[in-house]
Amino acid sequence: MLVWERPEPPDRPVPAPLSRDRIVRAAIELADVDGLDAVSLRKVAAALDVGPMRLYGYIATKEDLLDLMVDAVHAEIRPTGAGWREVLRSLAEATRQAAHQHEWLADLIGGRPQLGPNTLATSEAVLAAMDGVDLATVVPAVAAVNAYVVGAVRREITERRAERASGMDKEQWQATFGPYLRRTFATGRFPALSTLVHDGPHLDADQTFHAGLDFLLDGIAAHVPR
Amino acid sequence: MLVWERPEPPDRPVPAPLSRDRIVRAAIELADVDGLDAVSLRKVAAALDVGPMRLYGYIATKEDLLDLMVDAVHAEIRPTGAGWREVLRSLAEATRQAAHQHEWLADLIGGRPQLGPNTLATSEAVLAAMDGVDLATVVPAVAAVNAYVVGAVRREITERRAERASGMDKEQWQATFGPYLRRTFATGRFPALSTLVHDGPHLDADQTFHAGLDFLLDGIAAHVPR
DNA sequence: TATCTGTCGATACACCGTATCAGGCTGGAC
DNA sequence: GTCCAGCCTGATACGGTGTATCGACAGATA
C-alpha cells in the first residue's frame, strides 16, 4: 500500500535531481498526450532519462504512481463561492474541468481509495466551506455530488472519445456500427429507443451535465434546513 | 486388429462446442472469482480447454470481451414497478445489485460506449416504462440516475475492497496507514475532516446509496410536471 | 590503501495481447 | 480410391508489461 509521504530524498551528488514529483509530472504528461495506456514505468523512466528500476526508489508499485497522478490533479480541484449550493456546484465544475484537461482521470476517478494530501485538502476545503449545514446532511450530500460527478465525467469522456474516434475514422465507424444499429433498430425490439433517437431532445454535454447536477442540488436543497 | 471390440465411445470427451457465450461466461466466472486482472485471454482459453488463439474466432480483441461481459450482466438489469420514480429507483437498485454480484463491473461501468443488445434492452425497458413523462425531462433524468449509479457503485465497491484488504491484513494496513493518517491529522491542516471523522455520522453503504438516490429523485420530481 | 557496506540499475522472469503461418484435417473432384 | 485444395487450428514468436534479483560499483571506514 502506498505511503503518501515522500521518502527522504536521496542526497546524491545530484547529476539530475530525480524526485517523486518529477516522476508523477512525467507520467501525467505522458497520459495527457498519449492516454493512460501509454503510461508504463519504462516509458516514464525513459522520459526522465533513467533506468526503469530507478523509479522504485520513489514508488513502490505502478498503482502507487496512478494514485499519485490522481492526487496531483486534485491540487487544482478546489471549491469556490459561498453557500453550500455554490460550493457543491463549483466542486462538481472543477472536477469536470480537471477531467477535460486530463482525460485519463475519467479512467481512474472513483476507482481507488483516495487518501493523498491534495485529495484530503479538497475534501477539507469543501467541508470547511459548508459550515452552517448540519453534518448529517453534509456527508451524504457531498457523497452524492461526488458520485454523480464521477459517473457524469466518465460518460462524458467516454462519449468524447467515441466521437473523436468516429471523427477521425468516420467511414470505418459507420461501416462497423451503422449496419449493426440499423439492423438492431429494424428488429422493432426497441421502439422507445427508436423514437427517442429520432424525436428526442439532443442535449450537448454541457446541458446534460448541468441538468443532472441541478436535479441533484435541488433534491439536496429540499433536505437542507434553512 | 480387434475389429469386434467396441470403438471408442463416441461421446467421450466431446466438449460443448465453443461459442461466444461460453467464452463470455468463462470470463465472467474468472472475474467473479479472481478479479478483473485475472481475466486474460490465455486463462479464459485454458478454462475452456482451448488454445488462446482459438478465441479470436469469436472475439476481435480483449476489449470486445470486456464489452461483452458488461453487456451480459445487463441481461439481469431490468426496471420494475410503475411510475417514473419507481422505475428509476429500481434501475439504480438493479445496477447496484449486479455490481455486488460482479464486483469487476465497478471497474468497467461507464467506461465504454455500451451498444450491446442487453444494454439496449435495459434502456428500452426504462424508456418504455416511463411513458407519460415528456422526453425533455426523461432524457436528462435517466442520464443523471445512470451517472449517479456509476459513481456510487464505484465508490461502494472501492470501499468494500479496501475493507476486505484491511480485514485480511489488518495489522499491516494499520501499520501502513494508521501512522500516516494520525500524523496527517496531527498537522492540524484538516480540522473539518478531523471533526467529521470523530463526530460525524457514520452511514453504512446502504444508507449512503439510498440517501443520494433520494436526493436525486426528489430533485427530478421537482421538474416532472404532474 | 584495503576492506566493508550499501545502493543502483542491467538483466532476467513470467506474463500479457495478438500476428504469423506451418501443418493437419476435411470435403470435394475425378 | 485417390488426390488435392482450402480452411481451420493452435504452436510459435514478437514486442511489450511490471517487478525480483543480484552483481558491480561507489563511498565510507579503518
TrEMBL record, chains A, B:
One GO MF annotation is: DNA-binding transcription factor activity
Q: Which Pfam families match?
A: TetR_C_1, TetR_N
- Bilayer-spanning residue ranges: none
DNA-binding region, residues: 40-59
Query: What is a biological process (GO) this protein takes part in?
Result: negative regulation of DNA-templated transcription
Q: What UniProt keywords are attached to this protein's entry?
A: DNA-binding, Transcription, Transcription regulation
HTH tetR-type domain location is 17-77
The name this protein carries in UniProt is Transcriptional regulator, TetR family
The species is Actinokineospora terrae
Starting at the broadest rank, the lineage of the source organism is: Bacteria, Bacillati, Actinomycetota, Actinomycetes, Pseudonocardiales
